[in-house]
């Protein structure tokens, strides 16, 4: 007869939650690095024209063509959101806000690209995956190998911070989309 293991007080964290798997921190680190650096590189295309990007001018023209007012300003906002959000995710610094920045930007990318197709080359599956991964990191926290451990209010991840941040990202994305003609 097999019994279900029960958590004793010694087997829980101070918050009463079961401790994470020993490799959970490493898994979250890999996810944060890949997602964060991908987003930072993508944002640097907008801001600096790196990696064959359009820079502010070229990206601004794309934003204007896509119906956004003040295309170059929107290119700066999107580029900064991607670079700062991406670097924040990669470092595990202010993770809920970094995730929200990526979520907001990617919601707009999905809306602009929204061709009715899911799969590449014209589909939205890549953007959707980036959005979901950023939201998941905002909600679960950065793991043990993160700079958030040195930020007193974020030392212990609270899911409510992630939920509020993701909601903020969605609201701001919606506001930006409303400005689009």
Describe the structure.
The chain has 181 residues and is mainly alpha-helical. 62% of the residues lie in helices and 0% in strands. Residues 5-18 have low confidence and may be disordered.
Order of helices and strands: HHHHHH
Briefly note the structural class of the backbone: mainly alpha
Whole-number mean pLDDT = 87
CA distance, first residue to last residue = 66 Å
Low-confidence segments = 5-18
Report the sheet with the most strands, covering strand number, pairing sense and barrel closure: none
The radius of gyration over CA amounts to 19 Å
Q: What is the percent of helical residues?
A: 55-70%
**Using DSSP, what is the number of strands?**
0
Number of helices: 6
Q: Which descriptor suits the 3D outline? A: globular
Amount of beta strand: under 5%
A few lines on this structure:
The chain is an all-alpha fold.
What layout of secondary structure does this protein have?
Blueprint: H1 24-48, H2 55-65, H3 71-91, H4 95-113, H5 125-140, H6 159-179
Helix pairs in contact: 1-2, 1-3, 1-5, 2-3, 3-4, 4-5, 4-6, 5-6
Salient structural properties:
mainly alpha; 6 helices
